[in-house]
Amino acid sequence: MLDFDMTDEEFEPHLKKAAEISQFFREIGPKYDVEDTFAYPSIEVFKESGLGALPVPKEFGGHGGGLIHASKVITELSRGDSAITLAYNMHYIMVGIAGSLMSDEQNKYWLGRVARGELIFGPFSEQRAGFSGLADMKAVPQPEGGWRLYGKKVWGTLCEAADIITTNATITDADGNLPEDFESRVSAESLFIGDFDVDENGQGDGIRIEKTWNALGMHATGTQTIHFEGYYVPEDGFIGEWRSGAFGVLEWASLMFASIYLGMQQRVLEESRAVLSKKTLGATFGAIAAAETKVSTVGHIIDGIGDMASRFELSRRVLYQTCQEVMDGSDDAWPIELRFPYIGLAKTFIADNVLHMTRHAMSLVGGSSFRKGTIFERLYRDSAASMFQPLNADQSRTYIGEFLLQPEELAD
Description:
Oligomer: single chain
Distance between the termini: 31 Å
Low-confidence stretches: none
Structural class: alpha+beta
Helix content: 40-55%
Radius of gyration: 23 Å
Shape: globular
Number of helices: 13
Order of helices and strands: HHHHHEEEEHEEEEHHEEHHHHH
Largest sheet: 8 strands, mixed
Strand content: 5-15%
């Protein structure tokens, strides 16, 4: 496992830098939401900030930040613009996941490059089954060694800025046939890493980007489809078995996604306060009869802001306490089968809260929030993405319920 030893004093300047970048994201975000394209000006700014090296251990040239440090930086960036931050969130996820699974020699090379400013991403989902389905993408062994990858991944977040790619594919026989036995297929699904070198049209050697992103929200992430058409991975690009390795470090996915939506919660509360503290209705007659009505004096408005603040504070505590427990090793006391869904409860809890808050904010602010281009309309759309990143609430409940209802668990 990676060694994270950043102190609070060492972390402080990085959080300040994140606040600066967050403001920049806030300024450019609306343009790229409207254009429905990746926020290209963010690339140079993010790279020059040095924030990409935050979770890289010091021994490989990084800053040594752990889960809680990455979470706080992502939360701050997301407060500026959640869609842009969601793209760079993939970088943090893959530094944590791949870095925890690679050998020291691989980390020295690949994380060394990250420490020098390069970006990494990881497309894993396939159209038919998303996260939980075994990879249909093939890794065909080559006579000279290594593999050629064939297939496609549908969630290539950060692909338009990345320099390094990680992905999963199932190792076949020499003729490209997938294992027929289920257990053999599970063990053959593997994690790979390599250079991601494409031109301005998204074309590379055996790999290409197809621009397919056309979603309800999170427009500026630039999440595209990645086609593997004989992409070559040498033997030293093999990291290890995917399923047995990834499930031990997937907190880097669920807790980083949770951080995105915690930052969005903070933005919802901030924008709601700014509008509702100043809004007046003039003379009103109905449920409220007054010559002049300030909405900040209306009961359900007061309660609504109090509810938002309460939800944000509870979410903050749940997320950062979960990060700390994982860093302290408290999760070792949980059944191994429940480790990932239990850690993921922070994400599902925050996702439920951000969905509630964005809807409630529009109700409190009124009909103006329904106009396209307002911050509330956008936050409402972007928050919907929280339902889909793994594990979602339904998947978590299934994992937990199935385990707890096994006869041998009931007997204990």
